[in-house]
Amino acid sequence: MFSRQLLTICSVAIVATLIAASCVDRKDNLVDIGDETEGAYNAHFQNAVGATYDNTDTPSCYKSEPNLKLPGVLKLVSGSLTVKNAMNLVGNTFVLLTLTKDSFLIGKVCDHGKSKNPLIPDDDCKFAFCQNATNLCTALGTPGVHSLGEIEGDLGINGTIELPELSSAIKGILKGKWQAELDIQSSGNVVASIKIPTNEKWIDIDQ
Fold first, then answer.
1. For the stretch 23-33, what's the b/e string if a residue is b when 16 or more beta carbons lie within 10 angstroms of its beta carbon?
2. Domains of the chain by start residue, with CATH
3. CA gap 51, 136 in Å, rounded
4. Which of 21, 86, 159, 207 has the maximal Cβ count within 10 Å?
C-alpha cells in the first residue's frame, strides 16, 4: 500500500515538473518587444513580439518563460515595422547593446555598444548585423509598413535576429534576469531601436 502511494506521489511530482519546465513553441517562448523611440529613427516597430530559440533553432525557455540564449536566435513573429526612407543596411550595420542585469552588484554592463565594466571588452557590447540581405534587413531599408512574422495570407517578414556568442569575460555573469536594448546602427547612424522585454520587465538570459 505504501509503495503504491509513494509511486503515485512520485508520478504526480514528475508530471508537475514536466509541466513547469515546458517550452511550447510560439507560446511559452514569446516575449514582448518595445520600441520607445516614438518614431525618432528611420524604422519604428509597433506591437512587436519575439520568440526565443537556441542556436540549434530549438525553442528556449526557463521555467516556461522565454529565455534568450547567447548564441541563439530571436525571431520577430508578430507586429509591424514602419520605415520612412530607403536605405541599404547590408554590409555596414551593427547592433549596439545596452545590457542591464537585475543585480545591485552588476547592474549595467553595456551602454549603447560601449562597455561599462572594466572586465568586459567593448566587442561584447556590439555585433555585426545585416551581413546578408535577409528579409528583416531588406525590410528595414524599404519604405512602407511591413508585417512581422509569417502570417497566413499576408506577405510577412521572417524577422530573424541571430544573437552571437560572447566572450568568457561576460559569460561568467550572464546567467540571470536582464533588460536588453538593441540599437541598430548603419553607417554610423542609429536607424532603429528595440527593448527586450518591454515595460521595465526582465528576461532570463542563458539559463
1. bebeebbbbbb
2. 24-205 (2.70.220)
3. 15
4. 159
